[in-house]
Write a structure and sequence with these properties.
The protein is of the alpha/beta class and 464 residues long. It is built from eleven helices and 18 strands. α6 links the parallel β4 and β5.
């Protein structure tokens, strides 16, 4: 039977996370920073619109969900693909030992960065450490890391994956956001052996931090040291993106994050903190997961959504179509957010061919229509049916989306935009088009050439 402490934490975790997917904080709980450097950084962040997110680690060898299968409390959904082993303790040992075979010798960070730039991504959000505790950088805090001799990749020229990936993306002009899990299911100061839980693990620590304050303090110091390594030894970081929302003061798991962030800001005063689900001064960015808010949010936010079916690499994954991905991006930006699109690398270090194809196609579309995407802000009526709106200075952009290429293209399209418009152009080619304005919107006459084509992903208009 779980003790009272466990029951309280489980209730909070159930509210925050379901099947490994986080919910997100309320716009009402967002606190605007006072520091000019942070306010400027938030405006920079809102300009970017499209981030390249990546979950990658030894678990990619299995094509299995990252970390979660280690938690017995989450076994009902996270181990559904574990069909080779029925003993959970054996499986967990197998998972932990994946570091001994992880050898992504085809990892070429410059190619990742070049492709991301070509695809129109504006920043790189990388998982430095997930809940399983495996560190993708040369940390001094643990041997459970990519550069340890137990990992065959440690002799490779790019062995410090975080260092070389971060540098490669910065060299291509893409800034860095560092994902870091506040939980660590490998360190003996979080999942401590021989505690009251025995081997039956869950998301939280294996002990009550209030009953073992010395052990908890060791974990806090361990966590601070790891984060400070990333924030001092690995170049300029724009966003510290923190996962594991159950690690918080309200769950009696206080890692004194504010102390850490303020110390880091002494060297990187622009540093944004995305302490997911916590609210307060260190959740500068709200982070919906695998979802887009129903309504626009007038605070900095970023939906992290997968290109395929999962955040981790899956063999023969099904990727969203380029049309779906662009429509997703349009919905996100028209509601005021950024899209962090997750693409998982293969175990050998390459990006999957299907993902590469989608990225190049997205890049081709954004090269033509990026003016209506980057550096814009949301604009009423935001997102309605198959239309969406953004604005930049005195220009309003309208996306008129088509469900598929076989959708009929009408000579005249109606746009529910009631404000006065003097001129309408198509963003592609800056071609002026005829329109009629009524009390409820615009009736735009498309060029005759558009009628004879398959339906595009979207017609994009410039209103002036």
């Amino acid at each position: 039977m779980a003790n009272t402490h466990d029951e309280i934490d489980k209730t909070e975790q159930t509210e925050e996370i379901e099947n490994g997917v986080h919910h997100y904080s309320s716009e009402k709980n967002w606190i605007k920073p006072e520091e000019p450097a942070l306010l400027q950084q938030l405006e920079w962040f809102k300009d970017q619109k499209l981030g390249f997110m990546m979950h990658w680690g030894p678990y990619s060898q299995l094509g299995l969900v990252e970390s979660w299968a280690l938690s017995d409390d989450d076994a009902d959904w996270s181990r559904e693909d574990v069909d080779w082993e029925s003993d959970p303790e054996v499986f967990k040992r197998q998972y932990v030992d994946l570091n001994k075979s992880f050898n992504p010798i085809r990892f070429q960070p410059e190619e990742w960065a070049e492709l991301a730039k070509e695809a129109g991504f504006k920043y790189f959000l990388f998982t430095t450490k997930h809940h399983d505790g495996f560190c993708m950088w040369d940390t001094k805090t643990t041997n459970y890391k990519i550069t340890d001799p137990s990992c065959p990749f440690h002799t490779h020229q790019y062995a410090d994956i975080v260092k070389h990936a971060f540098n490669a993306f910065r060299d291509k002009g893409l800034p860095i956001a560092a994902y870091f899990s506040k939980a660590d299911w490998h360190t003996p100061t979080y999942w401590a052996p021989d505690m009251e839980r025995g081997t039956e693990m869950w998301r939280g620590p294996s002990y009550d931090p209030e009953k073992h304050p010395e052990l908890w303090e060791k974990f806090v110091q361990f966590t601070h040291e790891q984060m400070m390594e990333l924030l001092t030894d690995y170049g300029r970081i724009e966003v510290l993106w923190l996962d594991a929302g159950w690690v918080s003061a309200r769950s009696k798991q206080d890692i004194r994050l504010g102390e850490l962030v303020e110390k880091a800001r002494e060297k990187q005063p622009w540093l944004l903190s995305a302490d997911r689900l916590i609210g307060g001064p260190y959740e500068n960015i709200i982070t919906p997961e695998q979802a887009v808010p129903e309504k626009p949010m007038d605070v900095p936010w970023e939906s992290c959504i997968t290109m395929g079916s999962a955040f981790s690499f899956r063999y023969e994954d099904d990727y969203k179509s380029t049309r779906e991905l662009i429509h997703l991006l349009i919905e996100v930006i028209s509601k005021g957010g950024n899209l962090a699109l997750n693409v998982a690398a293969q175990p050998d270090g390459r990006l999957p061919r299907g993902a590469v194809k989608r990225m190049k196609e997205m890049g081709a579309w954004l090269k033509v229509h990026g003016e209506a995407v980057y550096g814009t802000r949301m604009c009423a009526p935001y997102f309605q049916g198959n239309t969406a709106f953004t604005k930049k200075d005195n220009t309003v952009y309208c996306f008129y989306m088509y469900e598929d290429e076989n959708t009929p293209v009408q000579q005249e399209v109606f746009i529910p935009y009631p404000e006065k418009v003097h001129r309408v152009e198509m963003v592609e080619g800056s071609r002026q088009v005829d329109f009629k304005q009524t009390d409820t919107g615009l009736a735009i006459t498309l060029p005759a050439s558009e009628k004879s084509k398959n339906a595009p992903i979207a017609h994009v208009f410039r209103f002036q």
